[in-house]
Amino acid sequence: MTTTTPEDVRRVACVGAGVIGGGWVAHFLARGYDVTAWDPAPDAEARLRRLVDAAWPALTRLGLAEGASQDRLTVAATLEEAVADAQFVQESAPEKLELKRDLLTRLDAAAPPGVVIASSTSGYPMTDMQTTAADPGRLVVGHPFNPPYLIPLVEVVGGERTTAEAVAWASRFYEVAGKSVITMKSEVPGFIANRLQEALWREALHMVANGEATVQEIDDSITEGPGLRWAFMGPMLTFALAGGEGGMAHMLDHFGPSLKSPWTRLEAPELDKDLYDAVVAGCDEAAAGRTIADLVAERDQGVIDVLRATGRLPRQAAGHAEPKGTM
Ligand SMILES: NC(=O)C1=CN([C@@H]2O[C@H](COP(=O)(O)OP(=O)(O)OC[C@H]3O[C@@H](n4cnc5c(N)ncnc54)[C@H](O)[C@@H]3O)[C@@H](O)[C@H]2O)C=CC1
Ligand SMILES: C[N+](C)(C)CC(=O)CC(=O)[O-]
Q1: 120: Cβ below 6 Å to ligand 1?
Q2: I want to staple 83 with a disulfide (CB 3.0 to 4.6 A). Which of 72, 111, 178, 324 is the partner?
Q3: How far is the C-alpha of 82 from the C-alpha of 74, rounded, in Å?
Q4: Gap from CA of 61 to ligand 2 centroid (Å)
Q5: What pLDDT does 314 receive?
C-alpha cells in the first residue's frame, strides 16, 4: 500500500475525460488538487477544458478550496505520463468490460507502487475487472453520480482480490476530498443506488413500451411527487411516515399485502419476519432518536425548501396568502 495518507494527497490523475472523468477533474481542481488528465480522443483536451470552464461558476458559488485553480490542470500526452507521479488515480473510460480490464492492467503497470486506482464504473463488479492486473489489491470501484462536482455520493467497493486497506484508503480519501461515501461490504452489480435507479428506469421503459404512461407523465410523477421527498429523506424513512404514528411497522402491516399485487414487473421478496424486522429496525436506526412527529416536521420543511429552491412554491395557494416569515 501507498505510504501517502489520504489527507496528504496533492496530485490526482484522471484517466478518461468525458462526462464523468471531466466532472471528476472539475471536482478535484475545485478542491485544490493538482490534476493530470489523459484521454485518447483527439479533441479530448478542448472538450475537457470546456467542461471545467462551464462547471467553474457553480463551483465558485459553492466555494473553492484555498489555492484551487484551473491552472492546476495538466493534460498529459500518454497514460504513463498522466499517472507517473499520481497519488490517486480515477479511471472514467467507457463502460466496456474488456476495455476497463485492459486499461486497469495498464494503469496498474504504470502508476507508482501501492497507489490506489479507482474505477468510475456504473455497475461492473471489480472482481470482473481486476483479473489481469499484476497488483489487483489496489483496484477499487469509486462510483460517482453525474455531475461528480456537485452530487456528493461515491459508492466504494473492492473486488475479491482487493485489499481491505485499499478500500479503507479510498473511502477516506474521497471523504477528505469532500464526497459522501458509502463503503459497501460486498460486491453487488449496480452497487446500491444504480440498482434502485435501474428498477425505476426499467419499469418506466415498460410503461412507455406498453403505452401505460407517456415520458412526460413518468417525469412529472417523480418531480411533482416522490422526488420532492427523496432530495432529503430516503424511500425507507419516507414510507415509515406512511404508517402514521405506527411508523414502518404499521406501514408494513397496512400495505405489505400489496406486495402481492401486480404494481411492478419486478418480483416482490417474501415479506417474512426477518425482512419485516430488518426494515422496522433499520428505520428506527435511521431515525436516530427522532420521533415520528419530528420526522413529519422535517419532511414538511424539506418539501417546502425543495419547492422554494426549484421555484415551484406558489405565492398564493387555494386563495390563502403565504404567511410572512414562516417559510
Ligand atoms: N454518464 C454518467 O452519468 C455516469 C457514468 N459513469 C461511468 O463513468 C465512466 C465514463 O462514462 P462517461 O464519462 O459517461 O463516458 P463518456 O463517453 O462521456 O467518456 C468516456 C471518455 O473515455 C475516453 N476513452 C475512450 N477510450 C479510452 C481508453 N482506452 N482509456 C481512457 N479513456 C478512454 C473517451 O475518449 C471519452 O472521453 C463509465 O464507466 C460510466 O459507466 C458513472 C456514473 C455516472
Ligand atoms: C446512467 N448511469 C447508469 C450511468 C447513471 C449512473 O451510473 C449514476 C448517476 O449519475 O445516476
Answers
A1: yes
A2: 111
A3: 9
A4: 25
A5: 72
pLDDT digits (tens, 9 = 90+) for 237-295: 999 999 999 999 999 999 999 998 989 999 988 999 999 999 999 999 999 999 999 99
The pLDDT-based confidence of 321 (bands split at 50, 70, 90) is very low
CATH code that applies to domain 193-309: 1.10.1040.10
Rg, Å, the chain Cα set:
23
Please name the residue that has the C-alpha cell 496530485. 11
DSSP letter assigned to residue 323: P
Q: How far apart are CA 116 and CA 131, in angstroms?
A: 16
Residue 230, burial from CB neighbour count under 10 angstroms (0-12, 13-18, 19+): middle
Distance between alpha carbon 203 and the CA centroid of its chain, in Å?
21
With pLDDT > 70 as the criterion, what percentage of the chain qualifies? 96
What phi-psi label fits residue 16: left (phi over 0), alpha (psi between -120 and 50 degrees) or beta? left
- ipTM beyond 0.90? yes
Separation of alpha carbons 71 and 91, rounded Å = 21
Cβ neighbours, 10 Å, residue 263: 10
Q: What average pLDDT does range 153-162 have in this prediction?
A: 98
Place of cell 499517472: 83
**Is the CB of 93 within 6 Å of ligand 1?**
yes
Asked if 6-191 and 193-309 have one fold, the answer is: no
Range 6-191 has CATH code 3.40.50.720: yes
Domain spans, the chain:
6-191, 193-309
**Residue 305: exposed, middle, or buried by beta-carbon count in 10 A (0-12, 13-18, 19+)?**
middle
> What percentage of the chain has pLDDT greater than the value 90?
92
In this structure, are residues 242 and 255 in contact, taking their beta carbons and an 8 Å threshold? yes
pLDDT for residue 327: 34
Look at the alpha carbons of 74, 80, 84, 90 in this order and tell me if their dihedral is positive or negative.
positive
Residue among 24, 100, 122 to mutate when testing ligand 2 (max atoms within 8 A of CB): 122
Supply the pLDDT for residue 316.
54
